[in-house]
């Protein structure tokens, strides 16, 4: 498998992600949007930071179940239920200081949204990985 992450010189500098992720792989892995739900089905406590931590744990478990890890991630979409840019920045920082950080060096999108699927849910992350 080959993953080539690049930033074309004619595009703006990024805060860690790459504009282009080119993949040659035998298998693609698509995770359902990972929510901040604990194994019991309860929403994680601790506000935005606590929910982000639970989502990261869930992603790591799902990737491992597929035989993949954070370095195999080729695309992420991060949804934060907040119109406040500082909230989005805080989630981005928390993700990039976590064991999941290599996942966010690929093509990534960070969005502030009006609401997510579960009452009180503040964050969700969609992940695509590739394996040979």
From TrEMBL:
What InterPro entries has UniProt attached to this entry? RutC-like_sf, YjgF/YER057c/UK114
Among Pfam families, the record links this protein to:
Ribonuc_L-PSP
- Tell me the protein family, please: Belongs to the RutC family.
Domain of life where this protein originates: Bacteria
Q: Which SUPFAM superfamilies match?
A: YjgF-like (SSF55298)
The UniProt entry, under CDD domains, shows: YjgF_YER057c_UK114_family
Q: What is this protein called?
A: Enamine deaminase RidA, house cleaning of reactive enamine intermediates, YjgF/YER057c/UK114 family
